[in-house]
Structure formats: C-alpha cells, structure tokens
C-alpha cells in the first residue's frame, strides 16, 4: 500500500478533477468491530488536520491459516454497499439519520423499507448539472427537473428521459424529447446494451448535430444511468478540448472513457454510478463492433423542429 501512494497521488493530480488546495494534512481514523480507537474528535476550523474515517465490517480473529492472525472477510461488508445497506443511499441515510439511529435493531429493517417506499413515491428534487468540460452542452439531471420552469427554451435544447412509465414511453416522445426505457445494467445488461444505451446515444448525437445548444439526460436520481450515458456520449462525440465532433467511428480507450467519466463527476458531485453501469458502458465503447440500434418507434426523426 505504501509503495502505491505516490503513484495514486500522481494519477489523481493528472486527472480531470479540480483539486482543492489542502492547507492541512490528512489523518486517517480506522474503525472496525474490534477497534479500541476512540471516536474521531469533533472537527472544526481549528483542527490541525482533515479527518478521513476508514470503516470496515471485517473482524480480526485467529483463522487457523498459515499466519496466526488475520482478517476474516465478511461478504459484502465493505465493497458492496447495495447488499448491506438494504438499498439505503447516503442521501437517504443523512436525511433520516435521527430516525434510523433511534430504531431498535428489530425495527431497523422495517424503517428502511418505509423510507425507501416513501422515496420511490416522491418526485424527488429537481437537479440539473451541466458538464463544464463541454460548456454545458450535456446536462445530467433528475426526471423531477423535466419541467419548463427548469429547462431552457425548447427550441434550443433537447430532453432525454430515462423512465419505466409505459404511458410516457408510448405517447410522449417528440422531435426534441425522447423517452427511453430505463434498463439497469445490473438486472438487464443485454437490454441496456441493445436498447437503453444506443437509443439514447443516437438521439444525443442527432440533436447536437442540429442547432440544439444542449441535451438534458434525465434519470431517477442523476446518479447512475444518466451518468453512464453522458460518459458514453462524451467519449464518442467530443474531443479532448470538449468540442463536439459527432464522430462515433473512432476507437475509444480505457483512458479516454475514464477521463470523460471524470468530466461528468467533476460537474456532478452527487453522482455515484454503479460498477455494473460503468462496466457495460466501457464494454460498449471499446467493442470493435458496437451493438446496433433496434428498430423501434421510440427513435425520433432527425429533422429540425418546426
């Protein structure tokens, strides 16, 4: 680990992220089930360091292997939050922190289920994050922002909405708005690669080739699907200077895809794309023969709106 720190620091410094100037050192605090460390101190402006709290659910025990002591790995304890969190996201946790921490262990799972149910039934917050590296021509946002009060003049923008609402998928698409079925890569990898992603990319490219100034990519929470599709569009249709080139025939490398993702994450601090989404996007981008579009009525005409 120590040998890799300098290399990782250099990679971070050469990335597309805007790095703040740190005026104090970073100090790690390691917390595990058998940790005897005190809780991290109260942090304020006078604290001479930035606290980095490192959590692990693994427990150090005798394992009977070649070494007498080691760490017993707890499946999903740290690397798969979707499993151990029961679907609870960081935003929902902090929003309901007092309620959750006051719960008895027996009631905790029921409280999480209720919180998730309420969140699904809510329209959520209207979020729009223009990608700065391309001067806002791509915007990542939530479906709750699909309203004239939040969007530009319809003559100068196009809207891509990722949804599972049958009525919207059948009736609401137009020359400047496209509703696409939101197949999530973890559950539906083939459908994502053959429908959600290519249909979205064709619409984005078509609209940016016209007089449209920007394309809004809207999903449920502006964290996963919209981030993956924006990354793919940036890798295929924009050069290193952030200029639209509309050429999707060139090869895309892992480094290119990573830097385009960094463009999106730098402008969308709340983004948290899943490993499945990033894996499928990379698979699509680096395939020598990218999956072709299915013939579907959801594809709109590339003509200018009247």
From TrEMBL:
Keyword RNA-binding assigned: no
Keywords from the named record: Transferase
Official protein name in the record: Initiator tRNA phosphoribosyl transferase
GO cellular component terms, A-Z: cytoplasm
The Rit1 N-terminal domain, residue ranges: 1-116
Xref: Pfam families: Init_tRNA_PT, Rit1_C
GO biological process per UniProt: charged-tRNA amino acid modification
Domain of life: Eukaryota
Residues annotated as domain Rit1 DUSP-like: 192-285
GO MF term list: tRNA adenosine(64)-2'-O-ribosylphosphate transferase activity
Segments crossing the lipid bilayer: none
Signal peptide: none
